[in-house]
């Protein structure tokens, strides 16, 4: 198949999933055309049948706001015309589904001069639970989802939320996120360049959190949970990522007088080395449709202590791969962490279960689900 993929290229799990999907599909023999305003971050190796088309936007003084959605639709039409793509796969509904709709209709109006395309929208989370609900977007979002030739959601939770939030009557296919379990595999302590000794010289336990430090990730709670754990089990905290709440987190760490025990790493690309020295992954999010970074941790054998929101209970099995607690229940999350860190037999079992749960989401299981779905939509 010839597939156009549109995603946010720089930040966030939706762009990561879209790019990894494109790479995987290309290795399975499909021709993939990424269409975006910048090169997707994870598109870092040459693959023969992957192409990248940059959307350029003219900044005419009259346009106070860049007209990206229109420029994206025009680029989709151009790519469809010259590369004869079969379908566009839009990741994150806003504005990608709307641009794809526009492109499909423009192509249709050409009466066969350009081969018709279909478009599939993959819903990732905040496009449904947050941004899409704003009155300035809601009617357009509802329309664009309804008009999609196919819609997928990354969890059952997100599917249900979409149907109830938007009151639409549409088949939505649940295709969960996936992971390269060969890459995301715990590196043996002796071979890991991130020597645990440098981070935890006295054999302290290591808690880790990875996110974009937006408010809904509740990173200050990670610090509070760590503070409680450290009182009972000497520990270190590794915080990976950057975003609006980082300064507040640094302030809180100083206020609690635990700044020296926390490493603020900022944005990092090589996560396997960091995850391989971690004992627990902490994710107290207020909203999470799937929790890709928790899956990455689990694949490296790291049990997860998370909130019970959204799609997290579909991924993190309570009492098996980690524990879940109500949003904001810092004490409970700390208690669960202490329990696991002080019960080695239980910990080992949870670590093994985390890895085998992650194996369920391996690329070879999930990517064929997309291929099958593409075929179904194209033949409908
Ligand atoms: O929440 C983020 O950090 C980014 C966001 C995105 O759209 O890039 O992530 C969403 O999509 C990911 C990939 O499908 C999911 O793993 C995240 O759970 C989801 N985030 C939320 O629902 C808040």
Order of helices and strands: EHEEHEHEHHEHEHEHEHEHEHEHEHHH
CATH architecture of the largest domain: 3-Layer(aba) Sandwich
Uncertain stretches: none
Q: Could you give the distance between the termini?
A: 16 Å
What's the rounded overall pLDDT mean? Answer: 95
CATH superfamily of the largest domain: Glycogen Phosphorylase B
What ligands does this structure carry? ligand GMT
Broad structural category: alpha/beta
Tally of helical segments: 15
Principal-axes geometry comes out as elongated
Write the layout of secondary structure elements.
Elements: E1 2-6, H1 13-27, E2 31-36, E3 50-54, H2 68-83, E4 87-91, H3 93-108, E5 118-123, H4 126-129, H5 138-147, E6 150-153, H6 156-166, E7 173-174, H7 196-199, E8 205-210, H8 219-232, E9 235-240, H9 246-255, E10 262-266, H10 271-275, E11 280-283, H11 292-299, E12 304-307, H12 312-315, E13 322-325, H13 330-341, H14 344-360, H15 363-378
Parallel strand pairs: 1-2, 1-4, 2-3, 4-5, 5-6, 6-7, 8-9, 8-11, 9-10, 11-12, 12-13
Helix pairs in contact: 2-3, 3-5, 8-13, 11-14
The structure holds ligand GMT.
């Amino acid at each position: 198949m010839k597939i156009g993929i549109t995603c946010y290229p720089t930040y966030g799990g939706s762009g990561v999933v879209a790019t990894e999907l494109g790479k995987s599909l290309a290795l399975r023999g499909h021709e993939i055309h990424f269409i975006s305003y910048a090169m997707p971050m994870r598109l870092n190796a040459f693959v023969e049948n992957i192409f990248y088309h940059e959307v350029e936007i003219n900044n005419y003084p009259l346009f106070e706001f860049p007209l990206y959605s229109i420029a994206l639709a025009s680029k989709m039409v151009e790519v469809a015309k010259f590369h004869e793509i079969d379908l566009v796969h839009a990741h994150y509904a806003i504005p990608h589904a709307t641009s794809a709709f526009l492109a499909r209709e423009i192509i249709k109006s050409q009466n066969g001069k350009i081969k018709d395309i279909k478009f599939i929208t993959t819903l990732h989370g905040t496009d449904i639970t947050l941004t899409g609900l704003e009155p300035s977007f809601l009617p357009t979002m509802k329309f664009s989802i309804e008009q999609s030739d196919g819609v997928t959601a990354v969890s059952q939770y997100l599917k249900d939320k979409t149907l109830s939030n938007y009151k639409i009557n549409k088949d939505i296919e649940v295709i969960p996120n996936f992971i390269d379990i060969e890459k995301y595999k715990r590196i043996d302590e002796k071979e890991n360049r991130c020597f645990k000794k440098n981070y935890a010289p006295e054999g302290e336990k290591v808690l880790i959190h990875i996110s974009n430090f937006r408010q809904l990730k509740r990173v200050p709670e990670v610090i509070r949970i760590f503070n409680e754990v450290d009182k009972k089990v000497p520990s270190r905290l590794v915080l990976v990522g950057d975003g609006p709440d980082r300064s507040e987190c640094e302030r809180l760490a100083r206020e609690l007088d635990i700044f020296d025990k926390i490493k603020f790493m900022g944005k990092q690309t090589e996560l396997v080395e960091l995850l391989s020295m971690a004992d627990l992954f902490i994710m107290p999010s207020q909203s999470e449709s799937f929790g890709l970074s928790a899956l990455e941790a689990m694949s490296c054998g790291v049990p997860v202590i998370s909130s019970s929101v959204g799609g997290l209970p579909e991924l993190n099995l309570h009492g098996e791969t980690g524990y879940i607690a109500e949003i904001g229940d810092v004490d409970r999350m700390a208690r669960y962490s202490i329990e696991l860190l002080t019960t080695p037999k239980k910990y080992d079992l949870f670590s093994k279960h985390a890895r085998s749960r992650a194996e369920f989401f391996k690329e070879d299981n999930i990517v064929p689900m997309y291929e099958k779905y593409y075929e179904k939509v194209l033949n409908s």
